Amino acid sequence: MPDPISRPPYVPGDVLTCERDITHPHFRPGDHIAVLKGVAGRELWGDSFKVVTPSWHTPTDEDGWRLHDSQGGERSYITAHPRYLVHLSRRCADCLIYLRALEDYLLPQFADAGEVIDCGWYSITHLNQLVHVNDARSGR
């Protein structure tokens, strides 16, 4: 993967994730998932996690999942909304459709970038909750 991670002068808004209709039961403890964050060369790029247990997602006031980052670091555990997640451990139609739509949307915009592009759609709250910019509420 090219290095370092950078942000282009213009980062397109993610018009797909927050409109994604994916339910909490779609994921289960033990599933390996990715949170897609941008482009690396000619592929989508993101962070991988293991689904651990249900957890309330405060930024959206909906059921979420507690995720574990096996590489640890500053935040080994975070909570995320199911619509942010894509299966890595199994092929499912819902995740493949979302993955393809994100590829079709993003890859043409950064086809010649040659570096890792973080589109800046996600941040982590003080409660270790992953929040998408379109789900963020003021003061959280």
Plain-language structure description:
With 140 residues, this protein is mainly beta. Helices cover 10% and strands 35% of the residues. It has one helix and nine strands. It has one helix at residues 93-106; strands spanning 5-6, 32-40, 43-57, 62-68, 77-80, 85-87, 116-118, 122-124, 130-132. The strands form two sheets. Strands 1, 2, 3, 4, 5, 6 and 7 form a seven-stranded mixed beta sheet that branches. It has a two-stranded antiparallel ribbon with strand order 8-9. Strand 3 (43-57) and strand 4 (62-68) form a beta hairpin. The chain is globular, with a radius of gyration of 14 Å. The protein starts with a strand and ends in an 8-residue tail after the last strand. The mean pLDDT is 86.
Summarize this structure briefly:
This protein has 140 residues and is mainly β.
